[in-house]
Amino acid sequence: MFSLLGVLWGSSFLWIKIGLRGTGPFMLVALRVAIGILGLAFMVALRKPEFPRKRSLWIKLALLGTFNTAVPFVLITWGEQRIDSAVASILNAPVPLFTILLAHIFLDDEKITLPKLLGLIMGFVGIVVLLGREIAPGEFGNAIFGQLGVLLAAFSYAGSAVFARRNLREIPPLVQAFVPLVVADSLVWLALPVAESPVRFPTQGETWFAILWLGLLGTFIAYILFFSLLQSVGPTKTTLVTYFIPVVGVALGVIFLGETLDLRLVVGSILIVGGIVVVNWKPKRTRTPSTSH
User: Fold this and answer.
1) Which of 114, 144, 112 is nearest to 128 (CA)?
2) Predicted confidence band of residue 265 (pLDDT cuts 50, 70, 90)
3) CA nearest 161: which of 94, 231, 235?
4) N- or C-end of the chain: fewer Cβ atoms within 10 A?
């Protein structure tokens, strides 16, 4: 489940870039999420999970839909208009680093240790290296804001993972996936006429293929996997799926989109992924030989 989720989300950055050739970011997100909802609606009808009865839980599910789907999906898609898909996949990788910071504050069982602190510093340096990669007189406003948008999306993902772990443990994973997606798509469709006026549906076959891939695999299947893992292993371990994302995202961007693989991209990637490794590294305990009496 973990490996499959990494591959699905890692390749999503490629398909977002391809989808943007024929439509705007809000339309792409709105259609992608709508397709994901159709798949999850079928699963809900099939499995008939128990929905929450408390109003407070519905409000929390709505907040999850806003900050775990609507906001980050739009920010990443908007950002990829300005930066390469490979860079976007790397800037999404600090999710576990942000998660550790937030989990330390809001969860009792996940506190910052010295290795975690060192990993956070490494990851932060890697982000700075990547941000500096695009600083050029003619591109500052375009590329830098695109990168900051993806970083903000990563922070939103991290906060949502901690929020779900803290507040929604009693809700079935399928409901955690379905209800927030409905909320998120409603918000994006409401914002669409303002953000992308006049509203234009995509007409190119390539764009529709990208949207279908993102909706069925990158949203429907991926969300079932994500919330199942979140419930079983917790937010910090689940967000380690971003180990795979930059590797898959960079490889696909370079191979299929002809994106540039330069030294700063490599160094920034190594620092960010290395920071995640350090954060979660646990030395093996050597067993002392026991003596029989």
Assistant:
1) 144
2) confident
3) 235
4) C
